[in-house]
Amino acid sequence: MDQRANNIASQFDIQGNILDIKPLGNGLINDTFKVQTDGADDYVLQRINNAIFRDVELLQHNIECATAHIRKKLAEAGETDIDRKVLRFIPCKTTGKTYWTDGNGYWRVSVFVKDAFTYETVNPEYSYYCGKAFGRFEAQLADIPDKLGETIPDFHNMELRARQLHEAVKADAAGRMAQPEVQAILADLLPFEEEMCKAERLYREGKLPKRICHCDTKVNNMMFDAEGNILCVIDLDTLMPSFVFSDFGDFLRTAANTVAEDDPAVEKVDFKMDIFEAFTKGYLESARVFLTPLEVENLPYAACLFPYMQAVRFFADYINGDTYYKVKYPEHNLVRTRNQVALFHAARRNVPAMKAFIASLSC
Ligand code: GN1
Ligand code: MG
After folding, report:
1. Which ligand is located closest to the Cα atom of residue 237?
2. Which fold has domain 124-361?
């Protein structure tokens, strides 16, 4: 076992002796480890990517407020097994804060959720549960008294993402603009830019609210028990005020894609309408109570916006020379971009069917 990791984990008020620490999960941003102990709980140790999350104090403030609020609601509702239904972060022994820094990096520890499973893909039944769970998650946070901030300012602001792409193209820092395929992808994306920036326009016109959203509702950020019940939502770094489109759109971006987001077989990419229907049904059952008609009307737009935004983000990173997302090989971000562009087109073709389905729901 790595002595450094052991030393870092020991800064936190964990119970029991550490037996082993090994890598966990496949996030693209933070580094995650499982800390096995001889006590009642195991833990998750995470190095927070401080280049991306610049304000760790705010980040942990958001997470502490949100988890405490959900914990309180679960307790009031008479829930048992609360440590499997909301994450619990462990304070540092010396500072009492839920993060620790050695001046070299920022670290935090949470209780490992026992007997829980995450999946890279889901069937329609599980999608329906995910929809219900995310609608409930947003509803639970709708009356949070604390003020939460944006852990990455303008994280899902499409206008900003479009601007960043334009800047990347102009700077051409990695010399990749000379590739004919890069030019072709750019020409494919640009005509939709204005259409995709609709949310920001509605917001400026005062028609669209920001709510507390998770903002990284990839399917693998949801934990299930062995029977397929949703336990909790994980990866709370991007929990912040945003449009509901974030949670709705990002879930479908991963769950409704016929293949993984970095599958090079673009011809296999399609938008699964059965997943859309099941998720939307569940989501609206929990969220219809607080959503405005304009939000509901624009859910099909959200299903297109997120593959588009992700394509723009992967593409800008490729052009910049892979400075943001972890890559496993040099073309990784380009492969991801192609995949997300194909998904965007597939989603867009399904907009009339999505609208018809939402209109058919009675709830
Ligand atoms: C990042 O680290 P991970 O995989 O949970 C990213 C998301 C992207 C996603 C694409 C802070 O999330 O926004 O949708 O990769 N998180 C951040 O797979 O940028
Ligand atoms: Mg994740």
Report:
1. 1
2. Aminoglycoside 3'-phosphotransferase; Chain: A, domain 2 (3.90.1200)
